[in-house]
Amino acid sequence: MPQKKVAYNDKERILRLYSILISKQALSVDQIEDMFFVGRKTVQRDIKAIRDFLADMQAGERIQSEIVFNRTDKKYHLTEREHLFEVFDRINEEGGFF
To answer: Model pTM?
Structure first.
């Protein structure tokens, strides 16, 4: 059965990609392209947007969660997930990110 094409706006696509990565899943560029019906440049921009968000949110943190590309399996992974959840908890306790 062919995959149903769903049109996402930029923010929806980036948020969905981030949620997949944070749920322990690793994705290849091809998988991301196929999932969102976008090209390689869009995938690169989306990954950069998530990396920028993570860097801003974790400014000053000793441990940094980040998206890395593993050349062995040719997939993007989110590192230090557990630390990232601690950062989320701290932000929520302090009254939010903004």
So the answer is: 0.83
